[in-house]
Automatic annotation (TrEMBL):
Keywords, ordered alphabetically: Kinase, Transferase
Keyword Transferase assigned: yes
Name assigned to this protein: Fructosamine-3-kinase
Residue stretches making up the Protein kinase domain: 28-317
Entry's Gene Ontology molecular function annotations: ATP binding; protein kinase activity
Source organism of this protein record: Fontibacillus solani
PROSITE patterns: PROTEIN_KINASE_DOM (PS50011)
UniProt cross-references to InterPro entries, sorted A to Z: AGP_Transferase, Aminoglycoside_PTrfase, Kinase-like_dom_sf, Prot_kinase_dom
Pfam families found in the cross-reference section: APH
Length: 317
C-alpha cells in the first residue's frame, strides 16, 4: 500500500544493494516492485544468471512508526533463520542482511514459489481452503511450540519481562501513548482501556511460558501452491507471548474449524476467550492508529479501521 514511509528505490539503487550483497557473483538483470506491503519496500530481483530473490528494505523513520516498531528488520532476519533451522517450518532462506549506517537497512532472501493466499483464496474450493488452513494450523502450532525465557516483542529487548500481564499492559500503554501523540480520538478513555487489562489480570497471568508468536500470519503472509503452503513470511512483529495473539485466533479471521483442528485446539475456555477479546482490541487499535503514522491515502481503509475499532470496543463493553 502507498504510504508516507516506504522507500522508493531506483534501478541504480537496487543494483548497488545487489553488488553489496553478492559482490561480482550476482548481477541484477531486472526488478519488480511488490506493492502489497504496508511497512517495508519489497522487490523481486532477477539476476543475469536467472536466479530470483526478494529484497526487503526498511522504511524511512521520520515519525511514521509506532513505539513498538523498533529493530524490526533485525528481528525478522533472526526469526527467519531460527525457523529455517527447524527444517519443518517453510520459511525463505536469508542470503544477506545489511544494517550499516551508510545504506538503508535491507536483506535479500529466497524467492518463494506460489501466490499469497489472500490473492487466490476466493478461487479455491471449500475443500482446498480447509486443507490449506489445517496445514497452517499445524505450522502455527510448531512456531508456538518454540519457547523462550522472557515475554515481549522479539525486537525490543529493553521492554522484555517475566510477567505476561505486566508486559502486555506495557505494550497497550505504549500504543495509547502513540494515539495521544497523534491526537487521535479513541472509542474510550485511556483509563477505561487500561482498566480492562486490570479487570482480566487473572486470565492474562495464566500465561507463564513465553512462546514464539508470529503475530502477523494473515493470509497475505502465507504462500500457497497446488493446495499446499510453500512459505511463511514477515516475522518482523514476532512476540514472546501468548499463542492466542496469532492472527487466526482473531475475530477478523473467524477461527476457522480447519485451522483449529490443525492447531489442536477445539474449544476455548472462559479465560482464553477473555484474552482473545483483549488481543482483538490491541490489534484493532494498531490498525487504526497506524493509518495516521503511515499517512495512508486509502480513505476506505481508514474508514474500515475506524469502524472495526468501534465495533471491537463495543464487543468488550
Amino acid at each position: 500500500m502507498e504510504n508516507g514511509i516506504k522507500r522508493q528505490l531506483s534501478d541504480s539503487d537496487l543494483a548497488k544493494l545487489v553488488q553489496r550483497a553478492f559482490g561480482g557473483a550476482r548481477i541484477l538483470n531486472s526488478a519488480l516492485e511488490l506493492k502489497d506491503g504496508w511497512f517495508n519496500s519489497a522487490y523481486v530481483l532477477t539476476m543475469e544468471d536467472g536466479m530470483k530473490t526478494v529484497l526487503k528494505v526498511a522504511p524511512h523513520n521520520a515519525g511514521g512508526t509506532l513505539r513498538y516498531e523498533r529493530n524490526m528488520m533485525e528481528a525478522e532476519v533472526d526469526v527467519l533463520r531460527h525457523l529455517k533451522n527447524t527444517d519443518v517450518i517453510p520459511v525463505p532462506e536469508v542470503y544477506y542482511y545489511n544494517n550499516s549506517a551508510v545504506e538503508p537497512e535491507y536483506f535479500i532472501m529466497e524467492y518463494l514459489e506460489g501466490q499469497p493466499y489472500n490473492k487466490i483464496k476466493d478461487q479455491l474450493t471449500d475443500l482446498e481452503r480447509e486443507q490449506i488452513e489445517m496445514e497452517l494450523g499445524r505450522y502455527n502450532r510448531l512456531i508456538n511450540d518454540i519457547t523462550g525465557k522472557i515475554f515481549g516483542y522479539y525486537a525490543i529487548q529493553d521492554k522484555h519481562g517475566t510477567c505476561w500481564w505486566e508486559v502486555f499492559r506495557d505494550m497497550m500503554s505504549d500504543l495509547l501513548a502513540d494515539a495521544r501523540d497523534a491526537k487521535l480520538a479513541l472509542p474510550a478513555a485511556d483509563e477505561e482501556i487500561m482498566g480492562l487489562l486490570d479487570k482480566h489480570r487473572a486470565a492474562l497471568k495464566e500465561i507463564t511460558t513465553p512462546r514464539l508468536v508470529h503475530w502477523d500470519l494473515w493470509d497475505g503472509n502465507l504462500f500457497v501452491e497446488n493446495g499446499h503452503i510453500t512459505g511463511i513470511i514477515d516475522c518482523e512483529r514476532a512476540i514472546w507471548g501468548d499463542p492466542l495473539m496469532e492472527y487466526y485466533f482473531r475475530d477478523l479471521a473467524g477461527r476457522p474449524p480447519a485451522f483449529m483442528e490443525g492447531y489442536g485446539l477445539h474449544n476455548l475456555n472462559e479465560s482464553e476467550l477473555e484474552r482473545v477479546k483483549l488481543y482483538d482490541l490491541y490489534l484493532a487499535l494498531i490498525m487504526y492508529i497506524e493509518c495516521y503514522y503511515r499517512k495512508y491515502t486509502d480513505r476506505n481503509h481508514i474508514q474500515w479501521a475506524s469502524e472495526n475499532l468501534t465495533q471491537c470496543w463495543q464487543r468488550m463493553s
